C-alpha cells in the first residue's frame, strides 16, 4: 500500500535550527488548504489506484491548522483515494497547540498518531532553539494526549547543541522515558547556513561541537533508549516493539507515496517529483517538477534509503534488482567496510551496526 504526505509549511515561530521550507505568514493558511484539496483531486491518478496505508500531516507545524481544516484535507484524500485500509494517520504538532478539546477533535477526525516536536526537556536549550514551549508544558501536553486516548505517541529530541553536552542530554532522555511514549526520534543538530544558528556560527557566536562529541552523544542516546526497550531501527528513530513509524518506513523501503502542498515531494517507484518551495507560486498553480531516475540513480536511491535502517538489505535482493555484475562490484567495497567494522560481518545481509548508524553517510558514499 502507498502513502500520502500532506505538507503544511506554516509556523507561528521560526526555530533557530530549521532549514526546511516554512513561513510564518499564517494569513495564507486557508488558501493553501484549499489549494492542497485541489491538488489532491488533480493528482488522484499518481499512485495508479494503489490503496493508501498511511497518511502523514507534516510541516512546518500542522497543528497550526484548525480541526475543520485538517478534516477537510482528510475527507478530500478519502474522496479521491482508497483510504479504507489506512493503518496510521500521523499529525506533527507543537506541545502548546495541544489543548484537551483539540486533542479530542483530532481523535474524532481519524488522527491516531501524534508526533510532538519537543526537542529538549531543558528550558535553556528550548530558549536557544526559539521553541514556543517549556519543558513542563511539553510533559503536560504528552499527558493530555494520553488522557485523550492517543496510544501511539512519538516525541522528537535533538542533541549536539553547543554548550550543553551529555549531562543535559541525559536528563532529557530520562524525562522522555518517564512519559511512557511509544516512539522517540533523536536527531543530531546540523547547523545550516540559512538559519539563525548558521548566522551565529558565521559571526563566531556559536561553535559546532566536534565529531568526537557528536559520536559520544549519539552513543549515549543509543545506549539509554535501547536499554529501555526501544529498538534502534533507523539512524534517528527508536520504537517499542510494534510501534515503528509506518509512514516514514515507506521512504526507506522505496514504497510509492504522494506529496501534497508547497515543497512536498512524491515518489512513484521510478521517478521523483516535487512542488515549488513558495506559497505564492504554489497558490498561482505552479506544476510539480519531475525527474525520471536512471538505473544508476535507482541503485543509489536504494543504497541511501536501505542503509539508513538497521536491517540494511540482502545481497540476493540487490542482485535481483541490479544484476550479478553490479553485485560483484559492490561486494569489493562491502568487504573493505566490513574489515573497518562499518558493516556487520553477516555474509548475506549488508547492514550497518546500530551503534555506528551515525556514520551511514560515509558508508553510503563508499558504496557509490
Low-confidence stretches: none
Terminal-residue CA separation: 29 Å
Largest sheet: 9 strands, mixed
Give the amount of beta strand, in percent: 15-25%
Mean pLDDT: 95
Shape: globular
Q: Please count the helical segments.
A: 14
Radius of gyration: 21 Å
Tally the beta strands.
14
Secondary-structure element order, N to C: EHEHEHEHHEHEHHEEHEEEHEHEHHEH
What share of the residues lie within helices?
Answer: 40-55%
Class computed from helices, strands and strand pairing: alpha/beta
Strands side by side in the biggest sheet = 7-8-6-5-4-3-2-1-9
Task: Write a structural description.
The chain has 368 residues and is of the alpha/beta class. The protein has 14 helices and 14 strands. The strands form 3 sheets. The protein has a 9-stranded mixed beta sheet, with helices on both faces. A 3-stranded antiparallel beta sheet has the order 10-11-12, with no helix packed on it. Helix 3 links the parallel strand 3 (88-93) and strand 4. The longest helix has 17 residues, at 211-227. The protein is globular and about 55 Å long. 36% of the residues are buried.
List keywords for this structure.
9-stranded mixed β-sheet; alpha/beta; 14 helices; 3-stranded antiparallel β-sheet
Brief write-up:
By secondary structure, the protein is of the alpha/beta class.
List the helices and strands and how they pair.
Layout: E1 2-8, H1 29-42, E2 52-59, H2 67-80, E3 88-93, H3 100-108, E4 113-119, H4 123-128, H5 135-147, E5 153-159, H6 166-178, E6 183-188, H7 196-203, H8 211-227, E7 231-234, E8 237-239, H9 246-252, E9 257-260, E10 265-267, E11 271-274, H10 279-283, E12 289-292, H11 295-306, E13 313-314, H12 315-322, H13 324-339, E14 349-350, H14 360-367
Parallel strand pairs: 1-2, 1-9, 2-3, 3-4, 4-5, 5-6
Antiparallel strand pairs: 6-8, 7-8, 10-11, 11-12, 13-14
Helix pairs in contact: 1-2, 6-8, 12-13
Amino acid at each position: 500500500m502507498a502513502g500520502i504526505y500532506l505538507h503544511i509549511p506554516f509556523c507561528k515561530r521560526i526555530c533557530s535550527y530549521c532549514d526546511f521550507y516554512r513561513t510564518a505568514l499564517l494569513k495564507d493558511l486557508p488558501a493553501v488548504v484549499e489549494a492542497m484539496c485541489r491538488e489532491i483531486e488533480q493528482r488522484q491518478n499518481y499512485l495508479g489506484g494503489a490503496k493508501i496505508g498511511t497518511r502523514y500531516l507534516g510541516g512546518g507545524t500542522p497543528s497550526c491548522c484548525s480541526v475543520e481544516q485538517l478534516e477537510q484535507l482528510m475527507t478530500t484524500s478519502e474522496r479521491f483515494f482508497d483510504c479504507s485500509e489506512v493503518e496510521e494517520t500521523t499529525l506533527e504538532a507543537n506541545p502548546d497547540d495541544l489543548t484537551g478539546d483539540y486533542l479530542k477533535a483530532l481523535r474524532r477526525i481519524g488522527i491516531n498518531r501524534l508526533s510532538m516536536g519537543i526537542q529538549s526537556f531543558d528550558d535553556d536549550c528550548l530558549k536557544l532553539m526559539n521553541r514556543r514551549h517549556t519543558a513542563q508544558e511539553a510533559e503536560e501536553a504528552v499527558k493530555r494526549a494520553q488522557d485523550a486516548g492517543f496510544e501511539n505517541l512519538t516525541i522528537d529530541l535533538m542533541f549536539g547543541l553547543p554548550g550543553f553536552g551529555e549531562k543535559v542530554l541525559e536528563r532529557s532522555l530520562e524525562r522522555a522515558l518517564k512519559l511512557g511514549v511509544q516512539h522517540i526520534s533523536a536527531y543530531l543538530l546540523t547547523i545550516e547556513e540559512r538559519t539563525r544558528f548558521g548566522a551565529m556560527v558565521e559571526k563566531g557566536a556559536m561553535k559546532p561541537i566536534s565529531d568526537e562529541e557528536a559520536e559520544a552523544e549519539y552513543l549515549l542516546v543509543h545506549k539509554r533508549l535501547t536499554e529501555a526497550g526501544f529498538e534502534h531501527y533507523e539512524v534517528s528513530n527508536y520504537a517499542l516493539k510494534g510501534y515503528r513509524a509506518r509512514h516514514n518506513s515507506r521512504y526507506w523501503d522505496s514504497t510509492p507515496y504522494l506529496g501534497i502542498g508547497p515543497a512536498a515531494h512524491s515518489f512513484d517507484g521510478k521517478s521523483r517529483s516535487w512542488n515549488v518551495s513558495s506559497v505564492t507560486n504554489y497558490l498561482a498553480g505552479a506544476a510539480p517538477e519531475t525527474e525520471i531516475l536512471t538505473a544508476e540513480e535507482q541503485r543509489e536511491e536504494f543504497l541511501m534509503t536501505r542503509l539508513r535502517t538497521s536491517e540494511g538489505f540482502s545481497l540476493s535482493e540487490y542482485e535481483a534488482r541490479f544484476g550479478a555484475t553490479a553485485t560483484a562490484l559492490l561486494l569489493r567495497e562491502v568487504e573493505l567496510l566490513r574489515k573497518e567494522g562499518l558493516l556487520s560481518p553477516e555474509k548475506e545481509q549488508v547492514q550497518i551496526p546500530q551503534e555506528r548508524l551515525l556514520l551511514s553517510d560515509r558508508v553510503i558514499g563508499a558504496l557509490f
